[in-house]
Design brief:
Residues 5-41 form the HTH psq-type domain. The chain is mainly α. The protein has helices at residues 3-16, 23-30, 34-41, 59-71. It contains 4 helices and no strands. The N and C termini lie far apart (39 Å).
Length: 72
């Protein structure tokens, strides 16, 4: 996990554990985006943690497209 993601996770945890009274206060303390902290509290995952089901191409299809573009 990146340093930024660590700070976002800590900011969200501190709001949930009542260390800070608001998302804004926690986000300001950790110097992270307020909306992102709110999204994490709401259950949204970081892009790096999302599932690969959102891929448009399979690995074979991607290799085929790369080869096709290289041949142009």
């Amino acid at each position: 996990m990146s340093d930024q993601e660590d700070k976002i996770a800590k900011a969200a945890a501190d709001v949930l554990n009542k260390r800070f009274r608001s998302i804004r206060e926690s986000a300001r303390f950790y110097n992270v985006p307020r909306a992102t902290v709110g999204y994490r509290i709401g259950g949204r995952k970081a892009k790096s943690k999302t599932e690969r089901n959102s891929q448009r191409f399979t690995n074979e299809e991607e290799k085929s497209v790369v080869q096709w573009v290289s041949d142009l």
